[in-house]
Specification:
0% strand, 12 helices, DMT family transporter, membrane
Length: 293
């Protein structure tokens, strides 16, 4: 059950990232992130009675709050990178950073001991995240210009820096939430949505490219829905981390960059380049190895 929950988390996160990235190109990215966290808070509060748990302890809420700080920072910088159009750079860099920190901490500090098969799965997941995010142009299958304004130059370097910061926030989110006790139910996620919103507020003016205008009313429900999907992804991850090693749950949950590719192939009838096909094969191998390990 643990691997299935972690994969459900990846699916929900992938959809939320695509939707959030598109919204961030039409409105201030920090405003989109804030509306998303508030939407996630409402959804999580509604779901609290559905998950059994006793009254949370102060440490449980503290871990959830720390996770939310990571979420807030991660989402703001992720959406800023996505608003610059460098999705093929931002998503894999943030994903790799986001899984590296919890995996290392789980092994070094928490005593996680993944099996040999699980380690092979981790090794397969890292290049898979890069490969699935490539397109034919970036992988060298087409001639001509390489990347344009969104692939080279200062914008690309800035987007990479955003992705690095976002990855640290995502890693803190995963690592801290996994420390909350199973008896706490969904309250750590609720605490995290509150602190995530508070962490985003000072960052509403972090952008020089786009003024901090209010989020258009017509986009508020969509931003809130995006945040709700991300909150559900965190719930699935938290439950998965309670059923298996944190390192395994993090890696499976971090496979969300494959989701936009799969949506493009199945819904939009897009064609895969060789690099993406190899990446999806590596994703499948990682899933099998981690589930078997």
């Amino acid at each position: 059950m643990g691997p299935l929950l972690a994969l459900a988390s990846a699916l929900l996160y992938g959809i939320a990232d695509v939707a959030g990235g598109l919204l961030s190109r039409r409105a201030n990215f920090a405003a989109v992130a804030l509306a998303g966290q508030l939407g996630g808070l409402l959804l999580t509060l509604a779901a609290v009675p559905l998950v059994s748990g006793s009254a949370p302890t102060v440490p449980d809420l503290a871990w959830g709050a720390l996770s939310g700080v990571g979420t807030g920072l991660g989402m703001v910088f992720l959406y800023r990178g996505l608003s610059r159009g460098a999705m093929s750079v931002v998503v894999p860099v943030s994903a790799v950073n986001g899984l590296a920190l919890p995996v290392l901490a789980g092994v070094v500090l928490m005593g996680d001991r993944p099996s040999a098969l699980a380690w092979l799965g981790v090794a397969a997941a890292v290049p898979a995240l890069w490969l699935v995010s490539l397109n034919g142009e970036h992988s060298g299958e087409h001639s001509g210009e390489h990347g344009g304004e969104r692939g080279d130059g200062p914008a690309s370097r800035a987007a990479t820096a955003d992705a690095m910061i976002a990855g640290v926030g995502i890693g803190v989110q995963y690592l801290a939430l996994a420390q909350a006790g199973a008896e706490s139910g969904l309250w750590p996620v609720v605490a995290g949505r509150c602190t995530a919103a508070l962490a985003i507020l000072p960052l509403l003016r972090v952008s020089n490219e786009r003024p901090p205008e209010p989020l258009p009313v017509r986009l508020v429900p969509w931003a809130a829905l995006t945040g709700g999907l991300a909150a559900l992804a965190l719930v699935c991850y938290m439950l998965a981390a309670r059923l298996q090693l944190v390192a395994v749950a993090v890696v499976l949950s971090s496979l969300y960059p494959a989701v936009p590719v799969l949506l493009g192939v199945t819904v939009l009838r897009e064609r895969l380049c060789r690099a993406q096909a190899a990446g999806l094969a590596a994703v499948a191998a990682a899933i099998v190895l981690l589930a078997a390990g």
